[in-house]
Specification:
Layout: H1 12-24, H2 31-37, E1 40-42, E2 48-50, E3 56-59, H3 76-85, E4 89-94, E5 97-101, E6 108-112, E7 117-120, H4 126-140, E8 145-149, E9 175-178, H5 181-190, H6 193-204, E10 236-238, E11 244-247, E12 250-256, E13 266-270, E14 275-277, H7 300-314, E15 320-322, E16 329-330, H8 332-357, H9 363-369, H10 374-377, H11 389-401, H12 416-426, H13 430-442, H14 446-459, H15 464-480, H16 484-498, H17 511-516, H18 519-527, E17 539-546, E18 553-558, E19 561-566, E20 577-581, H19 583-590, H20 596-601, E21 606-609, H21 612-618
Parallel strand pairs: 7-8, 8-9, 9-10, 14-15, 17-20
Antiparallel strand pairs: 1-4, 2-3, 4-5, 5-6, 6-7, 11-12, 12-13, 13-14, 15-16, 17-18, 18-19, 20-21
Helix pairs in contact: 1-15, 5-6, 6-16, 7-8, 8-11, 9-11, 12-14, 13-14, 13-15, 14-15, 15-16
């Protein structure tokens, strides 16, 4: 991507703040430096991973600059985290359990069985998963994949699965996942997937240049790979805590943790290895209660309780805890301390936010005043590299209280553009606002600059001076941020203000995910794309008779709403058109990949009633916009 972005140096205020971090944080604690290298077996020679077309989807060497001293343009704590997370290769956790780290945002874990290797969380892309498996086989032998496990329903834990198999065919290999996995995995990436993917471009900063003034990681991992996303549905659901399964001689005991880091998630204990996989429930960062890309608000109270349960259930038989991100923690005492501190982290945020909201404070007020306990601040793994204390507190507030803070002045505010125009007018016009904002910039008050100049940008998005000043202020905030995703958001905002809208580098709405939608989810996914106002006066009913099914599906567009019902009854209106076809043809029609007229002509679909009614209905279906603006209106 060509860019005209010109970065500014770190300001004196940011230099001072970053220098203070160096003095206050325990940089002499080198345990993580040792642990991140422990068990290193080897890595690949060619650090660039490409797709079939030769395009780069991952470059392991792009973060080598992190081996130098931290510059003024980065928070030293985040620089340290990036350096640790960028370590890449094959690592032995304990004999028989290995991890591929640094090949994607997440880790891929490989557990050796009697006949082959059992793979946990095969990364985001088939290309990175295949490269990781090839590295493992180079050092551990050409073992077949005898099973797969998805710890939870986020794409970085299943997207690369077809890269584990020749031509993507898993055959009869068992694939384990927590109950509810398919529902949440496909819904998250389809229902609001376009908006989430666009915001993920900011959150992970995949389009940012790698370097001291650009992207230095995302706290949880470095960034997201940009290869082929796939999904093979699970063959075995894990439904309850204490459930045991054996695959290829590997014994596993499961702990269900729904509603923690993902709606469907679980921890796994390997009793023959005294090892606990904590999925993404305990990693070397404060995690998100509400991820900045968007998601359902997570439950920190349940999260803390599940970590207590993990300690109680597995603590006496665990000598190493490893996760689907970062590096393991070894030694029973250190394992228990790690899990306990992670537990206390989420419990404290939950309980103290509730205490203060019940005293009348709003989310943004609580975020400004709540300080974490010193003992937790001294532990590196509790720092907010991915989640943050600030936005997690607001998430707890949102979970219990919603978007409204109770002040009636905020009940019916003007939308951003109209508010911006009025603010700028009240403040004496754009020139006066920018004049005062430049003084705030020179004083180092970048938070205020971004807040106030945002009004000028939204009131007049063609105001070049405003966009440049806003970009400069966002850049300084990025340079000082300990949180990787905050840094990426700030620097992505600066990039797009200075240059152009880069759109969505990584999209998770792959054909596999669309194919994995249940029929109920498929009709819901179409319904959320209906142009409501344009279809207010439409009243169209279409019925689908699927071959091999006894319950017809009737969908009706009425009052701008597309509803569907399985079977017959009062809710199933008499159809204007009725189609008989197989499920593949139905999916093709609804996805816009198949022409109903051609299917009818070829004899694959029979119809009674008026077939034109389907075309009238489908004309109201809109396409999402993966490149919508964020820092401009």
């Amino acid at each position: 991507m060509s860019t005209t972005t010109t970065s500014r140096p770190a300001s004196p205020e940011i230099k001072s703040g970053n220098s203070k971090v160096r003095k206050e944080y325990p940089f002499d604690d080198s345990r993580d430096d040792a642990n991140v290298k422990r068990g290193f077996v080897g890595t690949i020679d060619d650090t660039v991973i490409r797709n079939a077309d030769g395009n780069v989807v991952w470059d392991l060497g792009s973060y080598s600059f992190l081996e130098t001293d931290c510059p003024d343009t980065a928070n030293p704590s985040l620089w340290r985290q990036g350096r640790l997370v960028a370590e890449h290769g094959l690592f032995e956790v304990v004999p028989g359990i290995y991890q591929i780290r640094g090949f994607d945002l997440s880790n891929m874990t490989l557990v050796e069985g009697d006949k082959g290797v059992f793979v946990i969380d095969p990364l985001i892309s088939t290309e990175t998963a295949a490269a990781g498996l090839a590295l493992y086989r180079r050092h551990r032998g050409d073992k077949p994949v005898t099973g797969v496990l998805y710890t939870h329903s986020h794409v970085d834990h299943f997207g690369g699965v077809r890269g584990l198999f020749a031509e993507g065919d898993a055959g009869a290999v068992p694939i384990l996942a927590p109950a509810g996995f398919m529902e949440h995995a496909v819904a998250e990436n389809v229902y609001a997937g376009t908006a989430m993917a666009r915001r993920a471009a900011y959150m992970y900063g995949a389009a940012l240049p790698k370097g001291a003034e650009g992207q230095i990681g995302a706290g949880l991992g470095m960034t997201t790979s940009t290869g082929t996303v796939t999904l093979i549905p699970p063959t075995k659901d894990i439904t309850k805590t204490g459930q045991t399964e054996t695959v290829d001689g590997i014994r596993m005991v499961f702990q269900m943790t729904p509603g923690t880091e993902a709606p469907a998630e679980m921890n796994i204990h390997f009793p023959d290895h005294n090892a606990l996989c904590s999925a993404e429930n305990a990693t070397h960062t404060l995690h998100n209660l509400l991820t900045l890309r968007g998601a359902l608000v997570r439950d920190p109270h349940a999260w803390a309780d599940y970590l207590t349960e993990a300690i109680q259930t597995f603590g006496d038989s665990t000598d190493v805890v490893f996760a689907s991100h970062h590096w393991p923690t070894w030694g029973r005492d250190d394992v228990l301390a790690f899990l306990s501190e992670q537990r206390d982290l989420y419990a404290y945020l939950h309980d103290q936010t509730l205490r203060l909201l019940n005293r009348g404070f709003t989310g943004i007020e609580i975020a400004e005043q709540l300080a974490m306990p010193p003992a937790l601040e001294r532990a590196w793994h509790t720092h907010g590299y991915y989640g943050s204390v600030s936005h997690n507190i607001k998430a707890v507030y949102q979970r219990y209280m919603g978007w409204f803070d109770g002040n009636p002045a905020h009940l019916w505010e003007h939308p951003p553009v109209e508010s911006a125009k009025r603010y700028v007018e009240f403040m004496g016009g754009a020139d006066e606002v920018l004049k005062k904002a430049r003084k705030s910039f020179e004083a180092g008050d970048y938070r205020w600059v971004t807040q106030v100049v945002n009004h000028v940008v939204f009131a007049d998005p063609e105001n070049t001076e405003a966009k440049q000043l806003q970009a400069d202020a966002l850049e300084q905030l990025g340079y000082g941020s300990e949180n990787g995703t905050w840094r990426n958001f700030y620097l992505m905002g600066a990039l797009e203000l200075r240059d152009h809208n880069i759109g969505t580098p990584t999209a998770a709405d792959s054909p596999d995910l669309f194919a994995a939608l249940s029929l109920d989810q498929l009709f819901d996914a179409i319904a959320i794309r209906v142009d409501g106002p344009k279809s207010w006066d439409a009243d169209i009913t279409v019925r689908w008779n699927l071959k091999g099914r006894n319950d017809p599906i009737t969908m009706r567009l009425h009052n701008g709403t597309l509803t569907h019902v399985f079977g017959t009854g009062p809710a199933a209106n008499a159809p204007d058109a009725e189609f008989t076809l197989d499920e593949a043809s139905l999916r093709g029609i609804l996805a816009g990949a198949a022409d109903p007229a051609k299917l009818i002509k070829d004899g694959k679909v029979t119809v009674s009633g008026d077939p034109k009614k389907l075309g009238e209905l489908m004309a109201f279906i809109t396409d999402p916009d993966p490149g919508f603006d964020i820092v401009t209106p």
